[in-house]
Specification:
Blueprint lengths: L27 E4 L3 H12 L4 E5 L10 E4 L21 E4 L5 E2 L3 H9 L4 H4 E4 L2 E6 L5 E4 L7 H8 L6 H16 L10 H7 L4 H16 L8 H12 L8 E4 L3 H4 L1 H10 L3 E4 L3 E7 L2 E7 L3 E3 L3 E3 L3 H8 L6 H8 L3 E10 L10 E5 L5 E4 L8 E7 L9 H15 L8 E12 L19 E3 L12 H20 L1
Parallel strand pairs: 1-2, 1-14, 2-10, 7-16, 14-20
Antiparallel strand pairs: 3-4, 5-9, 6-9, 7-8, 11-12, 12-13, 15-18, 15-19, 16-17, 17-18
Helix pairs in contact: 1-10, 1-14, 2-14, 11-12
Amino acid sequence: MPHINSALPRSPHANHNKHSVVKQVKPVIVVGGGWAGLTAAIELVRHEIPTILLESAKQLGGRARRVPFENKVCAINNSDAETSPKKQAAIPVDNGQHLLIGAYESTLSIFRTIGVREDSILKRQRLTLNIKRRYRRDVKITAGRLPAPLHIAWGLLFARGLSITDRIRALTFCAAMSNIDFTLDKDESCLNLFNRYQQTDVIIKCLWEPLCLATLNTKIDIASAHIFLRMLREVFTHARTDSDFLYTYTDLGATFPEPAMEYIEKNGGNIRLGQRVIELNIKNLRIQGVKLNNTTIECEQVILATPHSVTQKLTAPYTELRPLHDQLKELDHQPICTVYLQYPSNTRLNTEMIGLEGTTSQWIFDRSIYGQFGLMAIVISSDGNHMSLDNDALCELVEKEISELFPQWSSALKRMVIREKRATFHSTTNCNQFRPGNKTAVNGLWVAGDYTNTGLPATLESAVRSGSRCAHTLVKSLQC
């Protein structure tokens, strides 16, 4: 959730001066139409560089895209949920419920670049954490209206459901992290860090663990404290509005992939769906082209904006890329499950999102903000016993938990399970040492994605920042 400005100009009409004119004859190939690939393509065409974006699926967005809500229990794994004319009639939802943060400066910048106004797609809300506990008093933490980081101190000081000891320990932890600029000499697990600073069980369960799971998608006993603290610093220490929650008014497809596609094609780029790159053509330490199932495209520059597991496979045959391949091999992946439950239309939360403690279900989002009244999205981050349940059993479990917490609600009318089995890389202790930069050992071959060395967890912001940085570095190399 970075606060650092994008290195590229923000205006879509940025200087196309002689320094932006490059000796580029063959188009740059961007492989992958997720948020990193789309961002890279936007920045390339903005600099008047011929660009072809190849996406293996039949829609853009990668792991943050629109899918249809079917009137049945089903699972959608990775890119299997592709839109067809028959499915378009179904209610549009997302392949995983995402929440943007005010500190997503690169993401908000790319929205502005393609002409998307923040207030047209996002509802900005001051940070409020509502944690509903199964057997104990609920917790509510609301950021104050003070400058950062005092707004967080205010929120902790006047939090509901926390004891004096809980509040003092949380404030002491925040002060201690601020004193060391949220950096550690040596990485350790988040749980070990919390225990070292004597965080109470309540603070861990109702604050630090939910934040860790939501941002790192990794359990606290193995999650990287380096990455977690970087997230805290970016979100809570610069500007008060950085910690705002940004809820989208539309599904993820309409939020970014669709306007991004329109911008890219309007500015001379070419997007080709259903085109899977199966092999790279590398000779004499230089990229020569990419091979698809039915054709080969010659090129001099390629950005692999693919998931790290796909990038690993594509780089495997090449000795010169062995170090990169071995790095990526060390990065494991983690799932995210989203259970959609359609209740009667008058069913509501008293806020857009509530955290759940003591249950398999972790977060529940009320999608009435989308105009989908009564539809709830229940998110379960990281691995766990729920992954061994079939979809019927998982729905039954989640519905039972929801009925215990909200006994006044009627039974769900429809339900759907979406399992993104490789939703994020695994943000474990010391994983940063395996995250590559954008430039590879092969001339003209680049990598982009949330798994690169942005220092951030596997968020949309990390993907966008990586794509922007990659394109910027590529443009500079062509100007030399």
